[in-house]
Amino acid sequence: MQNTLNQIITEYKTEIKPYVESDLSDLNNLISGINISQEYLHRLRDIIKEKVFSTPEAEIFFFKVQKPLIYGHFKYFVKLHRYVLEKPQGSIKKQRIYIDALIEKLQCNNLKYIDFVRYYRQCDSRLDKYYFVRGKENLNLISDTSHYYTDPDFSTSHDNMVAQIIAFDMLIYHYKQELKRLHKLQNNIDSDNNISIPFNDLSWTASKTDLVEIIYALQASGAIRNGEAEIKKISIIFEKLFNLELGNVYRTYLEIKERKKDRTSFLTQLKIALERKMDDDDEKY
After folding, report:
1. 253 with 165, same domain?
2. 246 by DSSP, 3-state: which?
3. Which of 253, 221, 243 minimizes the C-alpha distance to 84?
4. Cα end-to-end span (Å), the chain
């Protein structure tokens, strides 16, 4: 059984890596990460229910290392998905305050279980037989009771906490990168080249939703970098060009998709306006 589990973990690492390294403000990437992680968790559950571990050490390794790796990524993608949908659309300062609060909340959560967090980070193993073997719980060592509501055949008293530590570490790193990006944006610094970009006196006088429609159309048409440009980067360029904040462009895109009539209404208006101008110019000459 161990060879099969090792193979599944290897396959998962290969399949999930492109999504971990992708644009994690894109909901499609996050949904893919959630679905892939969920699929592999189901595969692990099926194997564990059908077969028996050869040794207690093998069971400990699975619930301390292998399952939490996938479950931690699953939690990470789920939390980021929620973050992208709920993050504020206000000023950069407001967004930074919001992210700071998220980081503080994660760190406070770790403090609740600081003894176990220390145990895990120091690679201690003295209590592994209680933490990571099914049916061997020691009530004096349990601080998180959520495992009582999970599948007893596929969980121990602390494998969920390990997954949570992994997820929180990844989230804190991601949020800190977001803070760096917002800091650069606030100081009018190009995020790729570290070059100041002067603003022109241009102003966008249509709605922000209309501009988001343009951004997604440019990306979908392949007009920018053959369609490989990230929505976030295109949005930043337009925000700098017109000196505005588009807020959560992914949520705006979802609202555009939900339109009952003419989902690309602004693009339709542009086409009509350009054709009218061409007709007017033809009449002049």
Report:
1. no
2. coil
3. 253
4. 81
Cβ atoms of 120 and 32 closer than 8 Å: no
Task: List all residues 6 or more positions away from 82 whose beta carbon is below 8 Å from its beta carbon.
Answer: none
pLDDT one-digit tens code per residue, 68-110:
999 999 999 999 999 999 888 777 888 899 999 999 999 998 8
Amino acid identity, residue 47? I
Other beta carbons less than 10 A from residue 255's beta carbon: 11
Where in the sequence is the domain holding 80, given as residue range(s)? 2-186
Q: Are 49 and 153 in contact, with CB atoms under 8 Å apart? A: yes
Q: pLDDT tens digit string along 236-261?
A: 888 888 888 888 888 899 999 888 88
> In Å, what is the CA distance from 82 to each residue of 47, 90, 100?
31, 17, 16
User: Each residue of 92-105: b (16+ CB within 10 Å) or e?
Assistant: eeebeebbeebbee
Q: Using the structure block, give the residue that is written with the tokens 């699929």.
A: 39
Identify whether residues 59 and 109 lie together within a single domain. Answer: yes
Which residues lie across from 189 on neighbouring strands?
Answer: 196
Residues 152 and 229 in one domain: no
Among 264, 229, 232, 265, smallest CA distance to 246 is for 232
Q: Give me 230's structure tokens.
A: 């990230």
